[in-house]
Structure formats: C-alpha cells, structure tokens
Amino acid sequence: MASVSLIQTAYEYIHRQIMLGEFMPGTLLSENELADSLNMSRTPVRSAITQLEHDGLVVSLKNRGVLVKEPSLKEAMDIMEILFAFQQLALEHIETHGEVPDLKKLKECLDLQLEATGRDAYYLYVKYTLQFAYYFISILNNSAMLKMMELYIDKIVLYATINFKITPHEPHYSGNRVNQAIYDAIAAKDWTEIRRIVKTSHDHNRERMIRLGRI
User: What one-character DSSP code corresponds to residue 138?
Assistant: First the structure.
C-alpha cells in the first residue's frame, strides 16, 4: 500500500499542473510517465488520480490513460451567479448594519494580486483576486457560505487559467481595477458605488462568457 505522503505528493503535483494550465483539458496523462517524473511507483499515482477523479478534474479511460476534463461553461456561470448573490447579501448587511469588511485583509489581497500581475503569474493573480472576494463576503460571518466559497475557488481559478491560456488576444487582469475600485469605495463608505461596481463587473463577466462560449 502506498504511503499517504507519496499519494499527497503525487496529488499535489498533478493538481498544480492542471491548475497552472500545464495539463490542459483534453490532455491524456500516462500513469507511467507521471510516476517516472515523480520518481515513484504507479501505485501512489493511481491513488492520486482517483482523488482527482473525485474532484472532477480528470477521468480514467480504459487502455488509453487519464484525460484532463474540460470545465463546464454551465457550471462556471452557475458559480459566478452564486458569488454574485453572496456579494449582494454582503452589501445588504453592510448597508443595514454599517459594518465595514476588514480593510487590512482586503489591502493585503489587492497588493498580492497586483504583485502577481507584475510577474505575469496569472494563477496567483486569480487566487488573490478571489481571496479579496472571500474576505468581502466574510462580513456576513456565515460559515456555510465561506465553506462553499472555499470549495469553488479551485474551480474558478481553473476556469480562469484555461481562458487565459487559450484567449491571449483578450484583455485579462481586469480584477485589479475592479477590486481597487471596491476597496476605495469601502474606505469611503460609498455603498451605492460598491453596488454599482459589483453589478457592472458581474454583467461584464457574464456577457464575456456568453460571447466567447466559455469562461
């Protein structure tokens, strides 16, 4: 039986390569080649692939290998609508109670996503952009919502990374402008402006997804 540490090592490697867009959808992975790359036997690699199948990232094809799955546009749009609904609830809470999200944490996320942009580290840019949204929503103090957000972050990062890889002609990194504007509006306690920014961003992203036929 493979050790837990070897399985985790294999899982983290394959997962990261998928999230970074190094293993793009449609790629056929070989257990033997993965095992050779990781300098381990096929047993922990096979267990890691089982976990990744459970995550919905790959599917094993008999006698062919392991296929990296194409993310669903419908699922991406559904997640986007859930995130928008959470943001709307957070805004209602802020307007009703006058509480302000943690500006220090929001600024840290904003600085990190801007730094990632400067290094063209798109994976990290998306990660910190979503963490900004996570801390904004955390004003609700709703553990169920935050847990759902945590479950969705990987999928949103994957969708965005694939889109970045296959649409180099499209503008990217728009989250910097959006989150900077939200941060400034929170600091100014301009709730109406925050509502406008969030709605405009949501509508823009939805239109783009429909236009491109993908995220």
Answer: G
Question: In the Cβ-directed half-sphere of 115, how many Cα atoms lie within 13 Å?
Answer: 9
pLDDT in tens, 111-142: 999 999 999 999 899 999 999 999 999 999 99
> Model-level pTM?
0.84
Q: Are 11 and 51 in contact (CB under 8 A)?
A: yes
Measured between alpha carbons, how far is 118 from 62 in angstroms, rounded to an integer? Answer: 43
Euclidean distance between CA atoms 137 and 162, whole angstroms: 26
73: enclosing H helix or E strand = helix 73-97
Alpha carbon distance 201, 198 (integer Å): 5
The Cα 115–Cα 21 span in angstroms is 20
Reported as a single tens digit per residue, the pLDDT across 19-59 is 988 999 999 999 999 999 999 999 999 999 999 999 889 99
In a 3-state reduction of DSSP, which class is residue 68? strand
Phi/psi for 62 (5° steps) reads: -55, 125
Helix/strand/coil (H/E/C) assignment for every residue in 23-67: CCCCCEECHHHHHHHHCCCHHHHHHHHHHHHHCCCEEEECCCEEE
| Residue closest to 155 by CA, chosen among 12, 17, 19 | 19
